[in-house]
């Protein structure tokens, strides 16, 4: 665990980019003409930590992570990755700037093989500076199973293996920050454990991970910090070890911390 992970954000955190991988200030977003779903989120994440976003259904977790990835435009606020303002960048340019995203569903091409999925991802991230030829080997070293079966169709992989492939495709860009939208969705408890172990390996490889999770127990087990979103607002931020599942019930029913 990173002892610094739960340090409170400095008053003017965005002025000092050296100490954060991801910084979010006053972020607001919503759909069409509807009201804000992301209602003014401020958050600083230290490098090489895992922060898990949890909260009740419909609280805006996926919308928040989609706003970070650039799939939902920010209405207000600012997003920085390692000190660079990426708020106005397209999703593809955010990847080039070091922010990779793995969506909850349809995150690999089922009709393509493992090798073809990795090749396609490599083509996509050509613009990312500093990604050398060794990146594929480094990524496959994290997920050796994938390297052993390059010709297997992604559609024939188990749910857990498919998540590993999706992680691997995202990591080919050598991101500073990896965003994961509910990697445990639809997986059996054993496979959830393996998937979470993979998330820890990703962090150990030097990547900062922000993940949205419905599986609170799994999230608490691997995270440095937990962020609770209620109705689009950050309701609690705490070290994962300090959060008890029983305490979350009150928050999930709307009690502000
Ligand atoms: N494409 C969309 N268009 C309009 N409203 C949307 C869209 N996607 C989500 N919403 C609305 O935004 C709100 C937050 O949804 P979001 O999926 O971000 O929450 P969540 O916390 O991730 O939920 P869950 O835990 O159920 O996945 C909900 O009221 C939802 O109906």
TrEMBL record:
<dbReference type="Pfam" id="PF00005">
    <property type="entry name" value="ABC_tran"/>
</dbReference>
<keyword id="KW-0067">ATP-binding</keyword>
<dbReference type="InterPro" id="IPR052156">
    <property type="entry name" value="BCAA_Transport_ATP-bd_LivF"/>
</dbReference>
<feature type="domain" description="ABC transporter">
    <location>
        <begin position="22"/>
        <end position="256"/>
    </location>
</feature>
<keyword id="KW-0547">Nucleotide-binding</keyword>
<dbReference type="GO" id="GO:0015807">
    <property type="term" value="P:L-amino acid transport"/>
</dbReference>
<dbReference type="InterPro" id="IPR017871">
    <property type="entry name" value="ABC_transporter-like_CS"/>
</dbReference>
<dbReference type="GO" id="GO:0016887">
    <property type="term" value="F:ATP hydrolysis activity"/>
</dbReference>
<protein>
    <submittedName>
        <fullName>ABC transporter ATP-binding protein</fullName>
    </submittedName>
</protein>
<dbReference type="GO" id="GO:0015658">
    <property type="term" value="F:branched-chain amino acid transmembrane transporter activity"/>
</dbReference>
<dbReference type="InterPro" id="IPR027417">
    <property type="entry name" value="P-loop_NTPase"/>
</dbReference>
<keyword id="KW-0813">Transport</keyword>
<dbReference type="InterPro" id="IPR003439">
    <property type="entry name" value="ABC_transporter-like_ATP-bd"/>
</dbReference>
<comment type="similarity">
    <text>Belongs to the ABC transporter superfamily.</text>
</comment>
<dbReference type="GO" id="GO:0005524">
    <property type="term" value="F:ATP binding"/>
</dbReference>
<dbReference type="InterPro" id="IPR003593">
    <property type="entry name" value="AAA+_ATPase"/>
</dbReference>
<keyword id="KW-0029">Amino-acid transport</keyword>
């Amino acid at each position: 665990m990173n002892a610094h992970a739960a340090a409170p954000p400095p008053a003017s955190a965005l002025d000092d980019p050296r100490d954060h991988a991801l910084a979010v200030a006053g972020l607001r977003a919503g759909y069409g003409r509807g009201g804000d779903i992301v209602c003014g989120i401020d958050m600083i994440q230290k490098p090489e930590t895992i922060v898990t976003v949890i909260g009740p259904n419909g609280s805006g977790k996926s919308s928040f992570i989609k706003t970070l990835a650039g799939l939902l435009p920010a209405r207000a606020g600012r997003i920085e990755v390692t000190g660079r303002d990426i708020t106005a960048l397209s999703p593809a340019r955010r990847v080039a700037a070091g922010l990779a995203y793995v969506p909850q569903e349809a995150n690999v091409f089922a009709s393509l093989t493992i090798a073809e999925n990795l090749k396609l991802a490599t083509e996509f991230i050509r613009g990312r500076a500093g990604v050398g030829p060794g990146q594929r080997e480094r990524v496959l070293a994290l997920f050796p199973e994938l390297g052993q079966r390059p010709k297997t169709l992604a559609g024939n992989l188990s749910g857990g293996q498919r998540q590993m492939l999706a992680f691997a495709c995202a990591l080919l860009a050598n991101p500073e920050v990896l965003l994961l939208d509910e990697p445990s969705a639809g997986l059996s408890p054993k496979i959830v454990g393996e998937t979470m172990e993979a998330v820890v390996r990703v962090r150990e490889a030097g990547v900062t991970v922000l993940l949205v999770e419905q599986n609170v127990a799994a999230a608490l087990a691997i995270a440095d910090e937990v962020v609770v979103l209620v109705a689009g607002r950050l309701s609690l931020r705490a070290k994962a070890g300090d959060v008890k599942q029983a305490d979350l019930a009150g928050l999930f029913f709307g009690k502000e911390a």
